[in-house]
Design a protein that fits this description.
Number of strands: 27
Shape: elongated
Largest sheet: 5 strands, antiparallel
Radius of gyration: 27 Å
Distance between the termini: 83 Å
Structural class: alpha+beta
Length: about 425
């Protein structure tokens, strides 16, 4: 009699057998199937005289809907699991407290007939990884970290902490409870899109897209759904015209106001060139690559308040947060200087790591695709190559150098 089940959870949305989104109750579960499933869980616990908190997992063939005769025992974990908060949210119990009380010899605080399901809950696992680069772990210092409000957050890190390559890269669990499944999915997706993390990359945008995918919203997801839709779900943040214009205006703000040269912005002078037609284009480096857009008419005064939006400034560069991801913008040139990021030949570190091989020296002539150096990160080797034919104008690292994400490693100048 001192055994209860706390109802079921659904963890079908997975990537490589790792859970991504968890929810309770399970969508499509009728009362008869629920009773049969939970009775089997209780029977398994009693069969081994188990004492304490535990989790029993089943695997279901739901091709014809959830049915008790199409659900099979998979494994038992003699502990709570990462997704226990969704159970807590719909039942109103503190499972960690229960676990401690039972381990101390106390009886369970409630009996089965005192438990009930109230509402819907979902949990998203926020990881330090880059979905656009094959979910490579992203390590380094959390220089900027803003997690959403009005969400149950379970985390062990804060801004300024280091994400190391030695432990699980989970940053936080985001948990939301609501009255119905559709509302909770929408709110949790928004919470994921509101996450701001830099320079460490996260899977926040991937989580939001997963929550808003057709398969998930229709409760038709399987353990293979993400693999099927991976190209769409893991695509990098699309940089729109408006984003580039904002970045360009921000660059203009740096040039016109921070260098005390407001004439560069003044109406009627903007874009002026001596002995040449006026040039109304905004030029900016986006994630190290040159992009240009026409100056947005009607927004002449936005530059005076730095364009607004969620962004932070780091020197001449600006980091823009959007949809749970970010991109970096920087001017092509600063006060006429042509060094560093003044061309698209800047080879930046894609992640923190160690340089284990350098195949060129400053002044070398290189051809497009030629290997320049090899970076080791998270026990994986990443070869960085020349983007075009040219000459190694700058080499900032040597074998053994430890580098941070987006650090300049090599700069290649185009061949004349």
């Amino acid at each position: 009699g001192n055994v209860v089940h706390l109802f079921e959870r659904d963890c079908s949305l997975q990537r490589r057998h790792q859970k991504v989104i968890e929810e309770a109750p399970a969508p499509g579960m009728d009362e008869a199937t629920r009773e049969a499933l939970c009775a089997a869980a209780v029977k398994a616990a009693k069969a081994v005289d188990y004492v304490g908190a535990g989790t029993i997992e089943f695997i279901a063939d739901a091709s014809e809907g959830l049915r008790a005769d199409r659900i099979w025992f998979m494994e038992m974990n003699t502990r709570l699991q990462v997704e226990h908060p969704v159970t807590e949210e719909i039942t109103g119990v503190d499972l960690v407290e229960w676990q401690l009380r039972v381990a101390s010899g106390e009886p369970l605080p409630k009996r089965q007939d005192e438990l009930s399901i109230n509402g819907w809950a979902m949990e998203a696992r926020l990881y330090a990884e880059d979905p656009a680069k094959g979910f490579l772990p992203s390590t380094g210092r959390l220089e900027h970290l803003r997690l959403p409000e009005r969400v149950r957050l379970e985390t062990g890190v804060e801004e300024g902490d280091m994400v190391s390559p030695f432990y699980d890269p989970m940053i936080a669990k985001l948990v939301i409870k609501g009255y119905d499944r559709e509302d909770v999915a929408w709110r949790l997706a928004k919470a994921c899109r509101d996450c701001e993390c830099w320079p460490v990359r996260t899977n926040a945008l991937f989580l939001a897209r997963s929550l808003q995918s057709e398969a998930f919203l229709n409760a038709a997801m399987t353990t293979g759904t993400i693999a099927t839709e991976l190209e769409t779900l893991a695509a990098p943040l699309p940089v729109t015209t408006e984003m580039v214009q904002n970045a360009g205006l921000q660059t203009l703000y740096h040039v016109a106001f921070k260098t005390a040269r407001p004439f560069a912005y003044a109406e009627g002078v903007r874009g002026f060139r001596l002995n040449a037609p006026s040039d109304q284009r905004l030029r900016v480096l986006i994630d190290g690559l040159p992009v240009e857009e026409v100056y947005p008419e009607g927004r002449e005064h936005e530059v005076s308040w730095s364009c607004g939006g969620n962004h932070i400034e780091r020197g001449a560069a600006t980091i823009w947060f959007n949809d749970g991801s970010y991109f970096t913008s920087a001017p092509w040139r600063i006060d006429g200087a042509g060094r560093g990021h003044a061309s698209d030949g800047a080879i930046l570190a894609p992640m923190p790591g160690k340089v284990i091989a350098v195949d060129v020296t400053a002044g070398d002539t290189v051809s497009k695709g030629q290997k320049l150096l090899v970076l080791e990160a998270m026990k994986m080797e990443h070869a960085l190559t020349a983007p075009f034919d040219g000459k190694v104008a700058e080499l900032t690292v040597a074998v053994g150098s430890q580098v941070q994400v987006e650090a300049l490693l090599v700069r290649v100048e185009k061949a004349e």
